[in-house]
Amino acid sequence: MSMINFELYKVFYLAAKSGSLSQAAKSLFLTQPSVSHAIKQLEEHMGVTLFTRNARGVTLTQEGNVLFSYIEQAYNFISLAEEKMAEFKSMDSGELRIGGSDSLFKHYLLPYLETFHEHYPGVGIHLTHGTTPEIISSLKEGSIDLGVVRLPIIDPQLEVKEGIQLQDCFVAGSRFNELRDRVLTMEQLTQYPIILFSRNSRARMAVTELFREQGCELKPEIELGSVDLLIEFARKGLGISFVTREFVAKELEEGSLFEVKLDVALPPSKVGIMTLRHIPLSIAAKAFIERIEQQDIGSRT
Amino acid sequence: MSMINFELYKVFYLAAKSGSLSQAAKSLFLTQPSVSHAIKQLEEHMGVTLFTRNARGVTLTQEGNVLFSYIEQAYNFISLAEEKMAEFKSMDSGELRIGGSDSLFKHYLLPYLETFHEHYPGVGIHLTHGTTPEIISSLKEGSIDLGVVRLPIIDPQLEVKEGIQLQDCFVAGSRFNELRDRVLTMEQLTQYPIILFSRNSRARMAVTELFREQGCELKPEIELGSVDLLIEFARKGLGISFVTREFVAKELEEGSLFEVKLDVALPPSKVGIMTLRHIPLSIAAKAFIERIEQQDIGSRT
DNA sequence: AGGGGATATAAACGATGTCTATGATAAATT
DNA sequence: AATTTATCATAGACATCGTTTATATCCCCT
C-alpha cells in the first residue's frame, strides 16, 4: 500500500544512468554495497528484477527500462525544482509584489526599486496602486507581498514597519507671492482657493478633520487625483495645494513653489510598510524590506 | 551539491496536497512531529520557507507553490511508475517475446500460447521465426526473451531446458500403400521420391548425416519450406516426407498418412527452451516457461 | 590460468529519522 | 470572555534503517 521510499529512486536513476552500481555510489557519496542493497530493496518491493548484473556493470532489464523511463522524468522535474529554488534563494528569480499609492511609488519607493532591480534583475517587480483599504485587502488575500502607505494603520493582522517621516503642507506659486513671508491662521487660509487630493485620500481626510476641530471648513475649489497635478496646478497659480513637503522639495528649492506657513503645526506622518503578521515573506520581499529599513535608518540621523 | 533526500519530497507533496501536516502524517503512517521535522529540513536545505503555518493547517507560500508545481509532476510520474511495475508483477501488462520455427509455434507452442493469453490478456505476445542460429543471436542481442528450438544446442551462454521429446520419421500417403507393412532399409528408401524440408533445417541436416554414415545419400526430389506443405505433398502422393511424428499425429490416426518404417531407429530429439544464462527473465517469460515445464512434466509420464 | 573489476553477502556500527511528551498559538465553541 | 480543540513546534530518548567494512563470488580479459 505505502509507496516505496523515494530515495531509492534516486539511487536507481543514477545506477541506471551510469550503468554501474559502483559509479552510482560515487555520485551519491555512498559505498557500493549500499547502492547494491538499495537496488535490491527496490526489486524486492516491486517483485521485479530491474538490472542484469554482469562483469562490467549493470544493464536495465525490460521492466527496468520501463521503470527508468518514468523515473527519468520524475528526476528531471526534481532537478528543475531544485534549480528553481536555488534561483529563489539567490534571487536570480522570484517576484516582488507591492501595493501602494502612485505618489509613494514615485516619490518614495522609486529609488529603492531602481537599486533593487539593478542588483536582482531576475526578480520581477509588480506594483499595484490603490487606496489604503484596497491595499490591505490585497495583502490579506495574498495578491501582494507588502503595502506601502501613510501611517497610522491599526489592524492587528498587520505587521507595520515605520519608514521615513513626511510632513504635509500647503504650497503656492508666484501668483500668491503676497503670502511668502506671512504666517496664516487656518481661518485666513480658507479664504484662498484650495486644491486637494481626491476625497478618499487619507491625508485629505486627516487635514479636513484637523481644520474642523478648529472650527474651520477646508473646502477645496479643485480636487485632483494625482500629486503631480496638485503640484502643477499650484505652480500655475490655480490655488494653494495641500501636498507632502518632501515630494515638492525640488520645486521649493528652485522657488517655483513656496510653502504657505500656518500658525499651527500640521502633524507629521510616517510612511509605513505593511506585511501580514505571521505570514512568511518571500525571499525577495524580505530582502527588499531590509534594504529600505537600512536606508531609512541611515537617512534618519 | 548533493541533492536533497527524495523522501522529503514525498512528505512535502502530501503535506501540500492535504494542507495539513497531521493529515500528511496519517497518509504516511508517521507522526505529526516527524512530518514537521521533514518539512523543516527541506526548508532549511533550500533556504526558503515553503509553508505558512496557521491554526487550521498549512498553506504554500509563493516559493512553496512553485516547488509544488514541479514536485507534483515528479510525484505523478513516480505513481505511474509504481502502477506500471505492479502491472508487470501481476502480468496485467508486459511482453513475451519468443523466437522459434513456425512449425514449433504451430504444433508445439500454440496451446501454451493460447492458455497463457487467456490467463494474461494484458501481456503482449511477440513471435519471431527464424533458423536456430538466427534465434540464438536474437536472444543474445536481447530482442527476444526465449527461443524454442530442437536440441541439441551447445552454447555455454545459453541456459537450455528440455521440453517434450519428438520423433522424426518418414510418412507417405495412399499412393505408396505397398509400403504400409514393410520395413525398409535406408538403401531401399532412397529409391523412392523423398520430400525434405529446406536445406538449412537442422532436422534435415541431421537425417542427411545419418544416412551418409550408412553410406547412403538422401537426396530429395522435392524441397519445401513449411511443415504443412510436407504433410500436404505426402498426402497427395508426391513422395515420402520426412516429418516429426507428433506433428502428423492427426493424419496418422485418420489414415491419410502412414509411417514408412526403417530397419534403423532414427534418433529422437527434444524440444529445447533456450534463455540467456545469468540474464534475468521478464516476469512474463518466467511465468510462461514455468507453465511449459509443468505441462511437459505432466505429459512425460 | 590468473588478475582486475564488477556485484553480492554478512555482520557490526552509527547516523538519521521516528516517536513520546510537551508547549505554544490560534480558531471555534460555549 | 473563557474554554475547548484543533493546529504546528520543540526537545530528548530511542530504535530503525541504511551505511560501512570485510569478504566472497563471478565474469571478462589478457
Which key phrases capture this entry?
homodimer, 301 residues, alpha/beta, Arc Repressor Mutant, subunit A, D-Maltodextrin-Binding Protein, domain 2, 3 domains, 6-stranded mixed sheet, 11 helices, 13 strands, 22% strand, DNA-binding
Précis, in short:
2 copies of one chain form a homodimer. Chain A is an alpha/beta fold. Helices cover 46% and strands 22% of the residues of chain A.
Query: Which strand-content bin applies to the residues of chain A?
Result: 15-25%
Distance between the termini of chain A: 65 Å
* Basic shape of chain A: rod-shaped
Percent of residues in helices of chain A: 40-55%
Number of helices of chain A: 11
Kindly report the greatest chain-chain contact and the residue count on each side.
A-B, 46 and 46 residues
Average the pLDDT over all residues of chain A and give the rounded result. Answer: 88
**H/E series of chain A, N to C?**
HHHEEHEHEHEEEEHEHEHEHEEH
Q: Multimeric state of these chains?
A: homodimer
Total individual domains of chain A? 3
CATH architecture of the largest domain in chain A: 3-Layer(aba) Sandwich
